[in-house]
Amino acid sequence: MQALAPVELPRYLLTGPLPERQAGDSVDQRPLVAIPNLGNYSIAFTSVAEALGVRAWAATRTTPEAMKLGLEAAPESACLPFKAYLGLFIQAARAGVKYAVMVNSVGTCRLRYYRGLFQQVLDEMGFDMYVFGLGYDGLKPPLVRYFDPRPWPFLKWVGRAAVKMAVVDDIELAAWRTRPLELEPGATSRVMSQCLRELDQSASKRATQSLRADVPRRFAAIPVDPERRPFRVGLVGEVSVLRDRYLNHDLEDLLGRLGVEVRNFFLLGAELGNIFNLGTRNPNSRKRLMEVARPYLGAEVGGHAVESVAHTIRCAEQGWDGVVHVCPSGCMPEVSIRPLLRKISADLDIPVLPLSFDEHTSHVGVTTRLEAFVDVLRDRRRKDCQ
Amino acid sequence: MTCSGFLGIDMGSISTNLVVVDGCNEVLYDFYARAEGNPIASVQSALARVADELPRDLQIVGVGVTGSGRSLVGSVVGADIVKNEITAHARAAIHLHPDVQTIVEIGGQDSKLTIVRDGAVVDFAMNLVCAAGTGSFLDSQAKRLNISIDELSAKAVLSLTPTTIAGRCTVFAESDMIHKQQLGHNQADILMGLCHALVRNFLSNVCRGKELRPPVLLQGGISANLGIRRAFREALGCEIVIPRYHMVMGAYGAALLAAEAAAPETRFRGFEIADHEVVTEAFSCGDCPNCCEIIDIVDNGRLVGRGGGRCGKWEGATYGTVADHAEVSPDSKPSQNKMSSGGVPSA
């Protein structure tokens, strides 16, 4: 068995040191690691887990069961993603998963404390689970140091995960474009599910690439009505609600069925560099978005607030029909920019629908708001034509 | 000679409203009833009442359904158009008052503000999760004081010195009311205070950041309440317009929308369905980890509609008899199956 590199306590850890590695816990037995849910990107994250020689415990959408567990364990005033992630971890811990990963140190909202808080809650509940932090901590995060994979296969798998992320983006972009035009309701979602399932199962680089090459053909084969003129609506807001289709009540499907071509402004594969502030020539780099947002928002307020403001302004400038701003209840950054979005909406004449999501399971409220919003868009278009 | 009419149904959270309009969009018949928990039964009894009172030669050529129970009732009656309440209410308001700029609609479970400019909806807002500031809030307080909602209305408006009641939360409001009552404030002042609290809640939560220009229309079940009318008038400092069919504006709007859509052949299944045995059956889908509870609507043994799913595959299916379930089942399962967190993934 390989000896483990000694691991120091990272400066941002709030609770005790890393667990002692047990004798039988060899890399060959592939321990399980629970990873936070980020919608369909969870498929790519499982490849990163492979890179570490572990198996991922993951889901592409929060399950009602996980949500229930999270609600029971979390304080009432915590934000919705906190409850969803905690529920996922508790569910994993109950199943005997010993490790979990949580992003920390990124962004300036409460999220940076969540790793420590999750650890504390899990400890208090008596689970034997260690939550690794995944923030910037030198070149080797504690997670990589702990599982210590061999460098070459590790990089190979990470590269594969990046390709999978790009394929997820391709699939979603194609689905957003096709859904409002489809003749048979649900046809696009079916093709999308099939593509995602194959992506999840594709184990080799070649299989992933051939799937990627095939995606445009599959979506092009869906019978559509090319005469329709879908409304174009941008989705901005908090990441986990944007990505997790359970938390956002299948917002993209609902809008698609109402004849709206959506563009979710969180595409990890295309914008991965922005998070780390790479690629300054990219129009979506953080620096460029800060410039766009500056007339309304001159400072970081955490989370994806700058992105939400900047993309709303861009949608208005590029003549989009509207913007839907999603915000989990209890989200500090997104709540702070609500008044700004209202002002942008009035100044630049673009309808902005604010949507708050909480734990409620009924989606009548969401449907009613979206339907009325699309009616507003239709009236505006009719007026423009006159 | 037969003449044609359009039926509008508003299946709200606490009331069932029906309106029948003629070819010139004039109301022939309107009906308002409190629904007690069973939407199918209440729409059936409402239809039976309408069928009795309408002229025999009137033929329904289009049906519009709105309200929070719209998809269920839409399947039961066979609607030509199923619309959200915001659009339906605005449609009726603009029809009756073409110059309207602001619509306040307070129903049983939610309250809505609609901003209209030049005869078109430009913006709207709804209350968030909590039901404070809606009709059910007044209902529960009237019940607690053991008076009817009409008595509440009549008493509140007589108050000369309304007291202040906390309006942020129903629970706080109730404890405030009890406190004031124990201090010796008279009931009229407390009830008027309650109306003020509700209006304050509405203005600070729903109307935040919106410009309320007159004419302001007040509609929905609560618009019958004189105390609420007075509170709005005092808070906004302008006259409040109560449209003629203020109690049934949603149903009126739905009927107008059905008339506008003018389907070549209506899907309305006739007033006979009032006598049909309509039942619902629930099953769990299980094709993905979300495990949606799907509701089948079965009319005399025939599957007429489905609801409750999140991905749309059940709702989008074509219906037949109950025995056809297998045919409706989609051929592919969502990708999430393998990655279900309900069990340890195998790879």
Distance between the termini of chain A: 76 Å
User: CATH superfamily assignment of the largest domain in chain B?
Assistant: ATPase, nucleotide binding domain
Largest sheet of chain A at a glance?
Answer: 4 strands, parallel
Question: Which structural class fits the helix and strand makeup of chain A?
Answer: alpha/beta
Q: So, CATH architecture of the largest domain in chain B?
A: 2-Layer Sandwich
- Radius of gyration of chain B from the CA trace? 23 Å
Q: What is the count of structural domains of chain A?
A: 3
Number of domains of chain B: 3
So what's the CATH class of the largest domain in chain A? Answer: Alpha Beta
- The share of residues in helices of chain A is 40-55%
Assign the CATH topology of the largest domain in chain B: Nucleotidyltransferase, domain 5
What percentage of amino acids of chain B are in beta strands? 15-25%
Q: How would you describe what is shown here?
A:
The complex is a heterodimer of chains A (386) and B (347). Chain A is 49% helix and 10% strand. Chain A has 386 residues and is an alpha/beta fold. Chain A has 3 domains: 32-149, Rossmann fold; 160-227; 229-386, Rossmann fold (3-Layer(aba) Sandwich), CATH 3.40.50.11900. Chain A has a 4-stranded parallel β-sheet. In chain A, helix 1 packs antiparallel against helix 6 (151-178) and helix 6 runs parallel beside helix 8 (205-220). The radius of gyration of chain A is 21 Å and the shape is globular. Chain B has 347 residues and is of the alpha/beta class. Chain B folds into 3 domains: 3-89 and 250-273, ATPase, nucleotide binding domain (Nucleotidyltransferase, domain 5); 98-242, Nucleotidyltransferase, domain 5 (2-Layer Sandwich), CATH 3.30.420.40; 277-339. Chain B has helices spanning 39-53, 70-77, 85-96, 135-144, 149-156, 170-183, 187-205, 226-236, 249-261, 325-328, and strands at residues 3-11, 15-22, 27-34, 58-66, 81-82, 102-106, 111-117, 120-126, 216-219, 240-241, 278-284, 293-299, 302-307. In chain B, strands 3-2-1-4-5 form a 5-stranded mixed β-sheet, with helices on both faces. In chain B, a hairpin with a 4-residue loop joins strand 6 (102-106) and strand 7 (111-117). In chain B, helix 7 (187-205) packs across helix 8. The model of chain B is unreliable at 317-347 (pLDDT under 50). Classes of the chains: A alpha/beta (386), B alpha/beta (347). At the A-B interface, helix 1, strand 2, helix 2, helix 3 and helix 7 of A face helix 3 and strand 8 of B.
